[in-house]
Amino acid sequence: MNEQKYPPFALTAKRRDMLAFITRYELFKLIADRPGVILELGVQHGQGLLSFGHIVSNVEPNHVARRIFGFDTFEGFPAVEEIDQAAGARNVRPGKLRGNLERLQDAIKDYDGDRFLGQVPRIELVVGDIEETLPAFIEANPQLLIAMVYVDLCLYQPTKTALELLWPLMPKGAVMAFDQLAFPEFPGETRAALEVIGAEGLDLRRFPFESQVSYLIR
Predict the structure, then answer these.
(1) Fewer CB atoms < 10 Å away: N or C end of the chain?
(2) For residue 137, how far is the Cα from the chain centroid?
(3) What is the distance between the alpha carbons of residues 100 and 44, in angstroms, rounded to a whole number?
(4) Would you say residue 2 has pLDDT above 50?
């Protein structure tokens, strides 16, 4: 029996892990026939980012232009404004929801070694405060066309900045998904979406098996 570095996914995955994977697969199906990259804003441990990676690499292994970019400070929230404060919110503090950058980088290397065309970049991490990294990323990629954005920033100001910058780069049929919209612990994400897109533009939908994630099709 060959020893494996990681046990088979289904042997160790918790219910929420499997649900997150299925949710991302259903989101991906909405943009499978459309060009453009996938952005995940707020990566933390990388469950969602690698889920998108595995889905893309298995469903469309030859689609080398389908890049996946993950944005995160990997140091937790840089700051929390008054608009983000919610009663009883345990995670709304500077430094909370910190990710493990080194472990995620190792996981991406293992992922690249196990996929078709692994020498062609698929997943890229953009490390730092999104209010600084996102404008620089857009300027450095004038060809940028976005098929999907998964918004998991939780806080008002980074979410507002991201929506203002990315909404114009999303063509008709692109998908924008939100991890905490209308979620009591993180009111800032909802306020930002209402201010930038507006309630009339938030034609939100959800999957019957997932109560937290919502999405819209542009």
Answers:
(1) N
(2) 16
(3) 7
(4) no
